[in-house]
Design brief:
about 325 residues, alpha/beta, Arc Repressor Mutant, subunit A, Serine Threonine Protein Phosphatase 5, Tetratricopeptide repeat, 3 domains, three-stranded antiparallel sheet, 12 helices, 9 strands, elongated
Length: about 325
Amino acid sequence: MKSLANAITGTSLVTELHLHLFGPPRIERSGVHVELDTRKAVAALAYLVVGCPDGVSTRDALAALLYPEYRQDRARAAFRRTLSSLRTGIGHDLLVTDRETVILALDQRVWCDVRRFIALAAECKQHDHGYHQVCVTCLPLLEEAAALYTGDFMTGFSLRDSISFDDWQLMESENLRRELSGVLERLVRAGGAQGKWQEAIAFCHRWISLDSLHEPAHRRLMQLYAWSGQRSAALRQYRACVRILDEELGVPPLPETTALYQAIVEGADTAPHDSSDTWELLSGHSQPAPPPQLALAAETRTRITPGTFTLVGREPQLAALVGSYAQAGSGQFAV
């Protein structure tokens, strides 16, 4: 392994390979578009870059991912052809292999928008403040991360004969969308703290577009509209939220959403008085005064794994879904 790692250490560390995986996959080498011969080669490259933090995988793991229906010997043979296509496309100097291992150089010669996005989000999490808080150092990192996310992970790409790869791709896509949701939420907070209403509103619209059923995002947008003097827009946003919830779930908004609507209608203070969740931009010097205390539910962000998501505030609906699932499993449920 050590000799292989040494083999990919180039004398020049100028970025040569640009891999864009937000939206449809796009590969460039030295500024020239690279068209790999097969979709399997694209899939292998994406997995090495995103699915392997150090760019290292075994041949058997990659062969099983790309050719799950094949016997091991046949899968390895098919993967050899895929590997040859990949090395021809991106360059032999960036991809080194032996009989068991495949290593992609993940140094300065290789840049990937997804890896950069993940690194930016991770850097913000290392700052000495709560996850949902934003400091002046966070702000440019979050803005760059949001700009990098130009579409869902590998939009429009799939391998028809590899459920294993498609499952991995879907999981990564959901994880990245969830990470983007957290990025946008903090940008909304930062914009509101600075009184940059239009920026905050734009980020909030984008946040809602990720999940139109997420009521906290609707409430944030209602409050931003109200604070920026757009009361009619705030009321329209509530009605849009009501319509979406009714059409998609057949349920009314949560009580706190309706309470916020009533407060806006009556011209009352729309900010709950809970100092634990104020909007502020943390720094070592003065910042523009934030809006009144804005207590909005802060959701814990975690990477999605099967079975870990919750339906907050919708316990009756969740119970009904669980019951239907149990009936389906016993053959008693009919559509």
